[in-house]
Amino acid sequence: MMDHSSFTGSVLEPFPDAELLPLGGSTCQCFCVKLYGKLHFLKRLKPELATDPRFVAAMSKEFETGYRLEHPNLVRYISKSDGGILMEYVDGETLGEFTASHPDYFKNRDNADRLLRQLVDVVGYLHSHQVIHLDLKPDNILITRIGHNLKLIDLGYCYTDAWVDTMGRTDGFAAPEQLDGSNDVDTRTDIYAIGRILNTLPCAAAYRDIIDRCTRPDKSQRYPTVTCVLDQLDRRSPFRRWMWLVLVVTLIAVGIYLYISSTASLGTAAIQRQDTTAAQPVDTLVTLPASHPAAEQEPPAPDVRQPQASQPEVPPASTITEERTSALHAQQQTSDRAQRLEKQVQDDIDDLYRMVRTGQLDPMNLMYMKQSLPKQIRELIELYRQEGNSDKVSEWYYKLDVVESVLGQIMT
Asked: Beta-carbon neighbour count of residue 196 at 10 Å?
């Protein structure tokens, strides 16, 4: 409530800084006025209509109806006097002006969905309070400069239980039951106008199913309530939800592939190790070439009177066996290390798959994976390269590409 008794003509008239706004339509004028340092909307009848009983009654109906309502997407009514209706000031543009000045804004489906949800929400609020707006159109929808939120204005033509003779319309957005003179209006009349408003947006084609049902000439074939419009919006596969579904299905397929290929690779590696171990005994006999002096027949006993000729030294068989055993041992250590690392990396990939599948994306865990998982895969590739296992090198290069792509999509 204001801190004085009322607004009177003598108080409202001295607004030397009042700014006429391009709102109000054919019956009213709207001004931006400053009262006690705060901006307000001032709405009053055009001079030629100021004494017309029907329009005076419509102004009274608008204030009395709007004053008892409170909704974040409905303009607030503050006071009424002979000078007009004082309302909260909304810093923004009409929907038509906003679309013209922001031509790409409603091409974004998230923005268009948000507009539709706010419009349906405030209209549903009116309906729940026995109010039918009857003049929904882009000029009666303001989009705020900050936040781009919707504000519905102008209840002058609305229907309420107590005001039945002051209904009106705008022909371009009026339902057939308003145009045929029957005035057989109900909540579905506003639903028709919602469809016409949607049809003015740049992304209208994306809402064709909703628009078609909202604007059916026979109101019995329209949505019965505005809540049904929201239900249809939720069922019609929103773009972001659809993209997440595609991403989840793709990751499930990749996870299954990685799991199956990893399991098969582990089994093949185990068989190869068994074959290698069986084919190479620990104690290997050394066969010297026939030309080697050590392979000739044992020479006769040396003559004690003459010195024995020196024989070339042959490395003992045990020395050669130790070198080969050491090499095999190093190769086995590399193979064991590769298999341990492969199991660890595969467990991390499985964890990533589970997080995406369940939607439980832990930011800290994801950050750790992004920093460590590709590094571990590259280390694994190097181990398999040392083994000379080209199949494993190719396999894990492919998995590295997949993991980096998935992590990149999630982190962005």
From this structure: 19
